[in-house]
C-alpha cells in the first residue's frame, strides 16, 4: 500500500482543516516546500497536494508552490483543487504534477473528465470521490450532490478511471480513524478499482488495517503534523 502524505495549501501555507470547514483551520508551516522535503527525506515517494484556495476560487492559485516542490524534490505529486478547465489542467501538469485529481468537476462535467481520461489516461487522471454519508460532496465540500458514492464510482469505472481518492469529509482532519468499513465494502464491490483512503487516518494501526483491507494507498495529513503517526513508524510501508 502506498503511503501518501498530504499538504493542503491556503495562502501558500501548509494548513489542515477539520471536517472540511475553512473556519476550523490550523496552520502548521509557512514553508510547504520544506515540509515536502522532510517527507522525501523520510523515504516517502508520493505527495497529495491540495490547493484549497484554488478549490474555492475555481482555478489553481498556488501553482508557484507546486512548481517549487516539484523542483526541490523527486516526489510523485498528485494535485487537486480548482482544476476546472483544460487550461488549468495544463498549468498544473506543466508545473510538475504527475497526476491530477478531478473532484467537483467530475460530478458537474463528466464529459470533460471522460475526455481527459481518454487523452491522458487513468494513471494521470485520478477521480476524487469526496463523500459524506452516502453522497458525493462538491464545491470545496460545501455542497452535497445528488450522486451516491457507489453510483459515482460505477460511472467512472465504466469511463476508464482506475484510481479513486476516497475522502470521508466527516472524518477529515479530526483524528478519529478512517472509514474502514466503507472502504472494505467498496473493495468487495469494485475489485478492479484502486482505492486510496483519505480522512481520519490517525495511528499506525489504522494504516495497518487499511493495508490489510487491500487499499491501494492511504493519504495521511494531520496525523503526521500532530505526531500521532511519526515517519519512522511508516518505514515498513515505504
From TrEMBL:
SUPFAM superfamilies, sorted: Ribulose-phoshate binding barrel (SSF51366)
EC number: 5.3.1.16
InterPro entries given in the database record: Aldolase_TIM, His_biosynth, HisA/PriA, HisA_bact_arch, Isoase_HisA-like, RibuloseP-bd_barrel
Cellular compartments per GO CC: cytoplasm
Gene Ontology annotations of biological process type: L-histidine biosynthetic process; L-tryptophan biosynthetic process
Record key words, sorted: Amino-acid biosynthesis, Cytoplasm, Histidine biosynthesis, Isomerase
Record pathway: Amino-acid biosynthesis; L-histidine biosynthesis; L-histidine from 5-phospho-alpha-D-ribose 1-diphosphate: step 4/9
Broad class of enzyme this protein falls into: isomerase
Reaction catalysis annotation: 1-(5-phospho-beta-D-ribosyl)-5-[(5-phospho-beta-D-ribosylamino)methylideneamino]imidazole-4-carboxamide = 5-[(5-phospho-1-deoxy-D-ribulos-1-ylimino)methylamino]-1-(5-phospho-beta-D-ribosyl)imidazole-4-carboxamide
Catalytic site positions: 8, 130
Domain of life: Bacteria
Gene Ontology molecular function: 1-(5-phosphoribosyl)-5-[(5-phosphoribosylamino)methylideneamino]imidazole-4-carboxamide isomerase activity
Classification via Pfam families: His_biosynth
Annotated compartments: Cytoplasm
HAMAP family the UniProt entry points to: HisA
Family statement: Belongs to the HisA/HisF family.
Name of this protein: 1-(5-phosphoribosyl)-5-[(5-phosphoribosylamino)methylideneamino] imidazole-4-carboxamide isomerase
Species per Swiss-Prot/TrEMBL record: Hymenobacter lapidarius
Lineage: Bacteria, Pseudomonadati, Bacteroidota, Cytophagia, Cytophagales
